[in-house]
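Morning!

This is the sequence you dropped in the shared folder:
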Amino acid sequence: MESDTKFTQRNPYLDETHDPKLTSWLCNANGHPYFPIQNLPFGVFQHNDDIPRCGVAIGDFVIDLHQLWSERLFSGNAEIGHEALTDTSLNRFMSLGRNISTAFRRALSAALREGSSHQNSIRRALIPIQEVKLCKPCHIGDYTDFYTSIHHATSVGKLFRPNNPLLPNYRWLPIGYHGRASSIHLTDTPVYRPVGQCLNNETQDPEVRPTTKLDYEVELGIFIGKPSQSFSPVSIQQADDHFFGVCMLNDWSARDIQAWEYQPLGPFLSKNFITSISPWIITQEALAPFRQAPSAYENRPHVAALESQQNSTLGGIDIHMCCYIRSELMRKQNLPAIKLSETSFKHAFWSIAQMITHHTQTGCNLNAGDLLGSGTQSGPESHEAGSLLEITQGGKNPITLPTGETRDFLHDGDEITISGYCESENGLRIGVGSVKACVLPPHSQCEDVAHSGE
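The structure's back. Tokens below.
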């Protein structure tokens, strides 16, 4: 790994923990497709129905950080961070800021490397990952969903406003809306088809019924670490100090409920029934090797409050994002899931730092554990569309599954998986997570079936 001054100036986020040649005494971690030593994501788990504990994933294992605390391996800022990680959630650790999280990462990385004298201490804290139950990584107090993909915004805009697809404010500010933190659920939580008010196209009157246009959205979840103060906007230069890490996110959407309700205020019941997230938080530090200049776009106005030298050179992150579908019939026939699309967060029009800065511009404070959604991530090509709304052009061009089934929107029994990873030119690869959920009939119908004994 380059370590000269020129290299550090190009990417000051990098340190020895990112060396692609780094190996661990835990052989299972070396070359691991998701959790090599260069990743070290944080999560919360339960083992044998014990209380939730904070952990770090490495290879096919979880490091029980509460158990490891008894070994007193670290000192200084790393020790401060480790003590906070004896809690049942990550919130306190996240709130301590980058100096603490970076120090703990460096100390843990050193303890996991080949030749470390801490091998026996850490081995005593290892639990096979298949033996644990993963929990939400932190208390999520607030959730804001953004709209950062100009390709998604333009594609959807063409469906509804062919002559004016991209509204004039889009290029000037990161558009977002406040969502429901209470209905954020972990991967594998079923999605019950929502019932809501939709417009009957024949009578032109609204009616309450189950949505017939249930959709997924390929998104990145962004966790806030260090809190910000009320009435104290976070500048673009300070924004990274408040960015803790990311997960994969699926912001399920009922398009027919949305079309009727969002005039003029925006999404409400069409989005609030469930948002699914993956369980591990991939830290800002782990993402450092995959930072790059944001994608260049024509006619981008100069917005001084949302621009900095750091953001213009390293504000983008190349996170590959893939979406798969597997219908109930496909599962019965033992057919594998098929890929619906693949895109990258590098196509985002607005960066994470810009989202954070804009969110606080009027004085809104952010708290540790707050979650930001990136909005549907779509790329410039048709195979990079991040929703069925785009893929099927609003249902006009259904896709065909290997079973011969067609889909304009999701049917009951469909299973959607969204996964992410980062991979550099030198071969370093880390997993960003996977979020999966199966669509079920409306909850009331499932209860009726259960009560009838069927």
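Headline: Residues 1-8 have pLDDT under 50 and may be disordered.

More detail when I'm at my desk.
O.
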